Automatic annotation (TrEMBL):
Role according to the record: In muscle, parvalbumin is thought to be involved in relaxation after contraction. It binds two calcium ions.
GO molecular function ontology, one term from the record: calcium ion binding
UniProt protein name: Parvalbumin
Every EF-hand domain range: 52-83
The keyword Disulfide bond is annotated on this UniProt entry: no
Source organism (scientific name): Albula glossodonta (roundjaw bonefish)
Keywords: Calcium, Metal-binding, Muscle protein
Family the entry assigns: Belongs to the parvalbumin family.
Amino acid sequence: MALAGLLKEGDIAAALKECEAADSFNYKNFFAKVGLAGKLFLQNFSGSARALTDAETKVFLKAGDSDGDGKIGVDEFAAMIKA
């Protein structure tokens, strides 16, 4: 089951197919294709989840953004989960 069962396997397969070639991955297109575009963090796990408050978002970003670029990349997210 993908991402707590929220994403459809067919959507994931189609998104992965579109970025098979080297240098073809576009995260915005990928997220849109698999159904993650426009969702905030908690809504990725349940569509009925509440949005994070501004304070929670700031704490989350501060905890995960180890390189200071204002974003949490996949490696940063993985490190955060393992901490």
